[in-house]
Design brief:
The chain is mainly alpha-helical and 492 residues long. It has 21 helices and 4 strands.
């Protein structure tokens, strides 16, 4: 498989000494990561408006569930198409499109007067989320020095969790200011509508800043815009080894036809003949969601209220959990380029398996109240809360940021955008599946957390066997190593 085999570090590798300054790379990576902030905000903002939407539009639980999950379906569609579009019109153009989609979603959902309009504009926002989830890691990987590429790639996850935290805080402030999410705030609009409208500001900022950063040099080389690629690389690298760098990029992009989905398959093979590295990317994406992280964020009130906290107290503790997620992402940023991607994933898988299995045992032995909700008392409740937060710590310092970093850098240049799009679409589809199935498991939380714990255990085995270490390796050197590995494992 593609995850095995040593990486070929040749003397001609692009090294950190080739970069004139890491400050430029940090600046442009930060702008690209702003898409992650909108990604996180748009994904989580619905939490503060769920009850109000159901009340205002008089819909049942089925319609409400579809309205909530519709953004995830949009995200899968956006992720699936973003890579191909980025290969045709460029990374920066796609960032601008994502910003416009977020802006349309903010106003469309905020002013919606029918439930179909809420669903429609949530799908539009979801497409923006899917696009941002693909383009940011690809762009950051293509413009970053090897030794800090992991830290810069982790900015995407930091922005995502910061967006989630920001949405929780803004939702709470707007709800507090109006006296409730379904109470009028400004201009006669209810607070829940302002929760969506508030997303317009970062959307405009993201779109404006996208005009200030250069196009990916690897996209420019692929589009035969060599003079422009030379100017961008001069900004990133200075003049040192400039022509050698361009030549090496051109070698990994050598082709006569235009990029297509067929590039993801070995010649003459069907869908299941995908290159091994593409399967590895899909596996990472699916395991990231199958450990149940979004259950903690979407349905955390179930856990907190099971221990005896009120609805308001549960909302506050949900914010605290999101803060923990932000802080642990900072740990990953500090460690990812020092100890590597693979060790962090293995540590995270171990921590998640232990905490999730602990929660499974506790909830399997919990009593149910008259409404079918679990009830925990004494030490079991405290242990469950501690385990839930330690699970967030284990995920936040490993699988949260590291998967996005790997997806941005692990694929060869010629298939990066398309492969990342397929992997991200798989991730959103897995997210949707976990999200829509959890409500039916609320009376069987022991079984639910047991499944997530099993997936965490399997994720560690998957990483140990098939994921290769990419720390400090140039994208072009990874291309050569991966192709050699694929040739060895391809069937005769």
């Amino acid at each position: 498989m593609a995850g095995q085999g040593p990486v070929d570090n040749t003397p001609s590798a692009i090294t950190d000494e080739d970069f004139s300054s890491g400050k430029t790379a940090i600046r442009i990576a930060s702008v690209a990561a702003l898409g992650g902030l909108l990604f996180g905000y748009d994904s989580a903002v619905i939490n503060g408006a769920v009850d109000s939407i159901q009340e205002d539009f008089g819909i049942g639980n089925t319609e409400l569930g579809f309205a909530v999950a519709s953004a995830l379906l949009g995200a899968a569609a956006g992720a699936m198409t973003a890579g191909r579009i980025a290969d045709k019109i460029g990374r920066i153009a796609v960032m601008k499109i994502a910003a416009v989609l977020f802006l349309i979603s903010a106003f469309g959902t905020g002013f919606a007067h029918e439930i179909w309009a809420v669903v429609l504009f949530r799908i539009v926002g979801g497409i923006g989320v899917g696009v941002a989830s693909v383009i940011a890691p690809a762009y950051i990987a293509e413009t970053s020095p090897p030794s800090i590429r992991g830290r810069l790639g982790s900015l995407q996850q930091l922005a995502i969790v910061s967006g989630i935290f920001l949405s929780f805080v803004i939702n709470w402030l707007l709800q507090w200011g109006a006296g409730g999410p379904n109470e009028p705030l400004w201009a006669g609009l209810d607070a829940w509508r302002w929760m969506f409208l508030a997303m317009a500001l970062p959307a405009v900022l993201y779109g404006a800043l996208a005009f200030t950063i250069p196009e990916s040099p690897r996209y420019l080389v692929a589009s035969h815009k060599i003079p422009e690629a030379r100017r961008v690389l001069s900004t990133l690298l200075g003049q040192k080894n400039l022509e050698i760098t361009i030549s090496r990029i051109r070698e990994t992009l050598e082709r006569e036809d235009k990029p297509s989905w067929r590039d993801l398959r070995r010649p003459g093979k069907g869908f299941f003949g995908l290159y091994g590295i593409v399967w590895v990317g899909l596996g990472l994406s699916i395991f990231q969601q199958f450990v149940g992280i979004n259950v903690i964020f979407y349905y955390s009130n179930v856990l907190w209220q099971a221990v005896g906290f009120s609805a308001d107290e549960s909302a506050i503790y949900t914010v605290i959990t999101s803060v923990i997620n932000v802080l642990t992402t900072l740990i990953a940023i500090a460690l990812i380029d020092k100890i590597g991607r693979k060790p962090l994933l293995l540590i995270g898988s171990t921590g998640m398996a232990v905490t999730l299995i602990t929660m499974s045992v506790i909830f399997a032995n919990a009593t149910l109240d008259a409404e079918g909700n679990p009830s925990l008392s004494g030490a079991s409740g405290v242990i469950a809360l501690v385990a839930a937060n330690l699970f967030v710590v284990a995920f936040g310092m490993s699988w949260g940021p590291v998967v996005w970093v790997l997806l941005g850098e692990m694929f060869p240049n010629r298939i990066r955008a398309a492969a990342l799009g397929l992997a991200a679409a798989g991730q959103w589809a897995a997210n949707w599946l976990i999200t829509v199935t959890f409500p039916g498991l609320r009376e069987h939380l022991g079984l639910a957390y047991g499944f997530y714990g099993l997936c965490a255990l399997l994720s560690g085995i998957f990483v140990w066997k098939w994921v290769m270490e990419t720390k400090g390796v140039s994208l072009e050197d990874m291309h050569g190593s991966i192709m050699k590995s694929e040739d060895k494992t391809a069937p005769a």
